[in-house]
Amino acid sequence: MRMRSKEFRSLVTSLARAGEEQEPRCPHTTMCGGCAFQDRRYSDQVAAKAEALNRLFASAEQLAPCLPAQPLEVVASPDPYAYRTRMDYVATKGRFGLRARGKFNYIVELETCHLIPPAAFAAAKTIWISATELGLPDYNLRTHEGFLRYVVVRRSPSDTLLLAVVTAEGAQYEPAMHALAQIALAQPGVVGFHWLLNASRTDLSFGTPVRSWGSETLLMRAGATELAIGPNTFFQNNVHLLERLLDDVRDAVIAAAVPGQALPTVGDLYGGVGTLALHLASHAANVMCVEAVAESAVLAARNAEAHGVTNVQAFAQEVLPFLQSSEASQLDLVVADPPRTGLGPEVCAELLRLAPARIVYVSCNPLTQIEDLQVLTRRYRVERMQGYDMFPHTPHVETMAILDLSA
């Protein structure tokens, strides 16, 4: 019987907690939801995730015969600390920090955080302290009163920072926000500061841009390219493991090409700001980067132009209608990195119709990936599976599946 999400998380947790104990770096690790296994040896965490993934895929009885015989392995993060490219810290009821494990409305007040470099955490906490001193009230998660909801850190591999605050409505606070921006820009490494509005009761650390100070974007190095990202744009969240993942996807693309020839057309689905598209551009005649979030699609086009790359086309469009309007055999190869909801049956059906020779499917949710693979294996065989520990000390794990069209 197929596992459910809660069961998979419980399996990863039980296997990881059976690992060898170690002294955690963070004093908050027993309560904070940011980390679950910091008190367990990292190599045991990685082994636990590999074991859990192999059990998960074996439990999908319909899919199991279509998978490679060799066990799936998980690539460890080169450094399990200070790895995140984005952190969202909650500001509520006089506390600054992260949610307690299993308690949505309880915030663990953080004095330190080892998920980002110390200077990045110090900058974020300075923003919260300064906001309080400037009279900007925290947002109350229960009563939905107040103003300041989140302090967001975007951090590049070179440790430059783009800071943002997500707020409720409050035009009267504009002078204080301007003063807060000047404090933010004075912090070491900070290149820009954004004010984002979330006027709904929905708890989101994203928002509509109100105003920005300094640089509007942050340059993120990914392989040989630098990509401009904004405060709302998606980007892989492990600065240490990103290049390995990009190279593995690139190698899977190269392996599908006829020796001595570039692949004519690669479809990069859910392409974000062009991270994979630009990494693949020199190996294909044309890369079609499809991204539904308009802000990200604009940045993808801008990033391609900044690097003088003329064979990457950015499409600000949902993936499904893009595929539905494509002709059979138009895409020679597809790379897909969908959100946690996966591709879904309709996108999978279109991929079966278009029949690219190879699909490289990167997933942040192995459970929805299984559902998609059960559809895709009607015409495809899974040549290889690989895991990536993009979120050390947590139950999360990413996977890459390489599928080839059956003869």
Automatic annotation (TrEMBL):
NCBIfam families: rumA. PROSITE patterns: SAM_MT_RNA_M5U, TRMA_1. Keywords: Methyltransferase, S-adenosyl-L-methionine, Transferase. Gene3D superfamilies: 2.40.50.1070, Vaccinia Virus protein VP39 (3.40.50.150). Belongs to the class I-like SAM-binding methyltransferase superfamily. RNA M5U methyltransferase family. GO terms for biological process: rRNA base methylation. This is 23S rRNA (Uracil-5-)-methyltransferase RumA.
